[in-house]
Structures are given as C-alpha cells and as structure tokens.
Amino acid sequence: GQQLNQSPQSMFIQEGEDVSMNCTSSSIFNTWLWYKQDPGEGPVLLIALYKAGELTSNGRLTAQFGITRKDSFLNISASIPSDVGIYFCAGHTSNTGKLIFGQGTTLQVKP
Amino acid sequence: DAGVIQSPRHEVTEMGQEVTLRCKPISGHDYLFWYRQTMMRGLELLIYFNNNVPIDDSGMPEDRFSAKMPNASFSTLKIQPSEPRDSAVYFCASSLPGYSPLHFGNGTRLTVT
User: Fold this and answer.
1) Within chain A, which residues score under 70 in pLDDT?
2) By three-state DSSP, how is residue B2 classified?
3) Residues A13/A110, Cβ–Cβ less than 8 Å
4) What was the pLDDT predicted at A97?
5) Does the beta-carbon distance from A88 to B93 stay under 8 Å?
6) First to last CA, chain A
7) Nearest CA in chain A to B105
C-alpha cells in the first residue's frame, strides 16, 4: 500500500538548535500537511501545503512541498523546550484522495 | 470556537465489556474520521463519514467494531466485546470537503484489562 517514510524517527537536540525532518513517498501527493502532537492531546495542524514547490512559514517553522510532489520537509529554527512533541507529516494521495500519515518524528529539546 | 469534542477522555474496562466512544465534530464540517493510535502502528484510519454516511470502513479491524453517525453533530464508535488488544488512543477528526486539513479531538485513551 501507499506509505509515507518519515525521518528521522526521533531527535534529541539542544535548545537553540535548528531542526529538520522530512517525508518521502514513491507516490504523488496533492497536499502535504504537518501536524504536532503534544502528550495527551490530538495532533494540531502546523502548516498546510497545496502546490508543488510551495514554501510556507509559520513563525519559526518552515515547510516545503517538494517539486516532484513526492516529498516534503519541515524546519524548525532556534528550537525551544515547548517544541517537544511528535511531528507528523500527512498527505492526500493523488490517486485515491486518501489522507495518509507518516510514522512521526519525536523531538526532544534539552534546555 | 469549539473544536472537535470527544468523550470520555479515559476509559478503563474489562475484557468482554461493551465500549462506546463519542464525538462531536466542528459545526459545518462535512467529513468525520475515526483514527486509532498505537505505538506499534501509529495513526490508523478506521472509518470516515461524509454527510453522515459511512464512505470507507476498510480500516475497521473486525466485526466487533462499529461506527454510527445519526446526525451531523454526533458520532459513536462502539467495540463489543472489547479485548485487551483494543487498548489504544482513539481520535475523532473532522474536516471540510476537498483536500482540507483534518482537525482532531483530544482523543479517548482506552484500556482494556
């Protein structure tokens, strides 16, 4: 079946460092979405991308929709302790329209 | 404005008992989704509705699981009988049509002993 390969699986960084994570697939996607999940809560939408090549920022977060429509990355600049959580990529596939989620990247930030 | 509301937040039950999880989607959202999250399998789509009609239930694990949406503002996910392997966090999400992002509730953590 269709899969999103999200990497890295986990990251442990120092406060102030920049973070980068990405998702890739062999399938073409019509959208790329990035979510963050805090402990005990549901995923919350961070950034939504709808067009190949689109680069969008939300504060310290920047995400891009890959030009091939098969990948996306999320960057977090100058990380802070509250960035801790699980980050998910998700995308609507072009052939089925279904929303598929990556396995998540667990981010830990050391003060 | 209120987001997706799920109840209960936590449910602990014994194997064999019936469990009912509840969800109120965001008003005006046509789509409602039920997901299950576990460490091993991540986020799995169980079923989704469009305008209260079930569209795809291929993710429902087995006949013990059933979901209903009697009206635009309420849905239930029922497990009968429950088993320990059903222990997970169950999320409800809703969205507008098209390639709109999903908005998630805070989930129900189910523990079956």
Assistant:
1) 1-2
2) coil
3) yes
4) 77
5) no
6) 40
7) A42
